[in-house]
Amino acid sequence: MRKRRSDRKHVLYGLTLMDTGDTYVGVTVADGAALVRAVKVRVQKHFSRAFTEDKAWTLCQAIRSNPNGDWRYEVLEVVRGRKAAHQRERTLIAERQATLNTF
Fold this sequence. Notes:
By secondary structure, this protein is an alpha+beta fold. The protein has one domain (about 10-95): GIY-YIG endonuclease, CATH 3.40.1440.10. The chain is built from 3 helices and 3 strands. The protein has helices at about 35-50, 60-65, 80-95; strands at about 10-15, 20-30, 70-80. Strands 2-1-3 form a 3-stranded antiparallel β-sheet. Helix 1 (about 35-50) packs across helix 2. The longest helix has 18 residues, at about 35-50. The N and C termini lie far apart (about 35 Å).
């Protein structure tokens, strides 16, 4: 059995509710070169979970409150390695003053 790679590419992304300016910063694994597609799939998962799971997370509450709002996502950075990606995510959350991240 092959050892799992620890240096996979991770995409840091931003999700913004344009109506209010509220933002979220997240990280997801990038499969191949399809960075935007990876983020799109992850954002769709956020929306799905908001309506199928009873989470009290700030992002889920915002999605339930504004399902038809002007939500926009963007690729912020690509980082190699899970640990480095999650460290950078925390930094970006603070820098961007992300209001929809739950701590």
